[in-house]
Automatic annotation (TrEMBL):
UniProt organism field: Lacrimispora saccharolytica (strain ATCC 35040 / DSM 2544 / NRCC 2533 / WM1)
Keyword vocabulary terms for this entry: Cytoplasm
CDD domains: Aldolase_Class_I
Protein name (Swiss-Prot/TrEMBL): PF03932 family protein CutC
Main location: cytoplasm
Amino acid sequence: MKNYILEVCVDSVESAKAAVRGGADRLELCANLVIGGTTPGVSQFKQIRKACDVPINVLIRPRYGDFLYTDHEFQMISEDALMFRELGADGIVVGFLKPDGDLDMERLKVLREKAGTGSMTLHRAFDVCRDPYRSLAEAIEAGADTILTSGQQNTCMEGKKLLGELIGQASGRIDIMAGSGVNVDAIACLMGEIGARSFHMSGKIIVDSGMTYRKENVNMGIPGIGEYDIFRTEEEQIRRAKKLMEEKACSRKSV
């Protein structure tokens, strides 16, 4: 088993293929990465599953915003998790909170069953929970394999202290995967200073649209985000990150 994991979050076939060419160990597939990610489409998953030969975990998140879901939303999440498992997903990425900020253990355990023999990642709902230490223990109890977290800060570097504490508390019982703001510099720091071994990054750049005719002053989405800006994973960013992780993993073995 590798002593590191580089997971790349993608929301297009183009980004998925670039991530795999760059050396991604695993993909997290979503839609709408620009708003933090939502549940991807079925045809999107099928195309990426066909094009990429690495494990694919699927984000199941029906909407932007908080992680307190209605019964209807939870039903959607449950059905989507089962559907993607049947389509060949290797794991699911989910998260549920109660109004008081604690993990919703009942719903997490239901999704653990839906995942079957696949993996389950507790996503960054963890980063807005009330008590990260208690929630880590509860995530283990619920059967999660991984916690994706920035250490309850906007970026993993800002959350470095808590990330280190979580890795220590986890003690190998669950994988603590650093996310948000992950790049080569962050990986070098976190591997060296707190012993992080799992990272989640998008490696995204903005690609200009191929449209030559452009209607100005008409916004179709979030104000401030250009209608002709396309976010894509850059292969070279993934390659540099993977190379660094391999070098540091080798240096540990030789010590």
